[in-house]
Amino acid sequence: MKVVAKQRNSKMCAVCGLDNVYGLRAPFYSLEDGSVATLFSFRDVHQSYPGRVHGGLISAMLDELGLRALWAKEGGEKTYGVTLSLETRYHKPVPYGTELLGRGVVEKESGNFLTAACTISDRAGTLLASAVVKYYKLSPQRIEAGIDEHEEMCYLIEDGVTEIAV
Q1: CB count in 10 Å sphere of residue 104
Q2: What CATH number does the domain containing 125 carry?
Q3: What whole-number percentage of the chain has pLDDT above 90?
Q4: 4-43: pLDDT as tens digits
Q5: Which of 19, 29, 43, 139 has the greatest CB tally within 10 Å of its CB?
Q6: Residue 17 covered by a domain
Q7: How far apart are CA 107 and CA 154, in angstroms?
Q8: Would 26 be classed as within a structural domain?
Q9: For residues 145 and 138, is the Cβ–Cβ distance under 8 A?
């Protein structure tokens, strides 16, 4: 599917933060259908049992995909939000050290509320985890007084990705 924009990365986010040595440092792409995608890999520092990723980190990626799906739909990072609920289903063990595909799409949006459906699959298309995530939308000014969101979400590094097989 065609990539229409690369989304920004932050400094220290556990999922997208490029300065977080333990983070995923995942890139995110807005796709032509209004969804979001990422190609990323968990590492051995993200393990639960040997060979498997910790469920909390899987949920963290699914949570990130949900709000970024709104950014893909809106065409930019205009709205932030806080998670109200996250219902995760673990379909198969998620391995580390292998490229995975994360996807998110807005299913419902009304007023200050948003529901997104998110998935993590392996590159063969096997569904590994999925979630329905509900958010309360906030403007950047309401996240926390004194935080400069432009300073935190400061990285926009074009990488030449123009299409993602989904």
Answers
A1: 30
A2: 3.10.129.10
A3: 76
A4: 999 999 999 999 999 999 999 999 999 999 999 999 999 9
A5: 29
A6: no
A7: 28
A8: no
A9: no
Classify residue 160: in a domain, yes or no. Answer: no
pLDDT at 88: 98
- The answer to whether residue 58 is domain-embedded is yes
Q: How far apart are CA 74 and CA 69, in angstroms?
A: 9
Domain of 90, in residue numbers: 40-149
Burial string for 3-21 (b: 16+ CB within 10 Å, else e) reads: bebbbbbbeebbbbbbeee
Asked if residue 152 has pLDDT above 90, the reply is: no
Provide long-range contacts, Cβ within 8 A and 24+ apart, for 74-82. Answer: 75/5, 75/30, 76/5, 77/7, 77/8, 77/153, 79/137, 79/138, 79/139, 80/137, 80/138, 80/139, 80/140, 80/142, 80/143, 80/149, 81/114, 81/135, 81/136, 81/137, 81/138, 82/135, 82/136, 82/138
The pLDDT, as a whole number, for residue 3 is 97
Q: Which of these ranges, 77-81, 97-101, 133-137, has the smallest mean pLDDT?
A: 77-81
Written as six digits, the tokens of 53 are 């990723």
3-state secondary structure of 136: strand
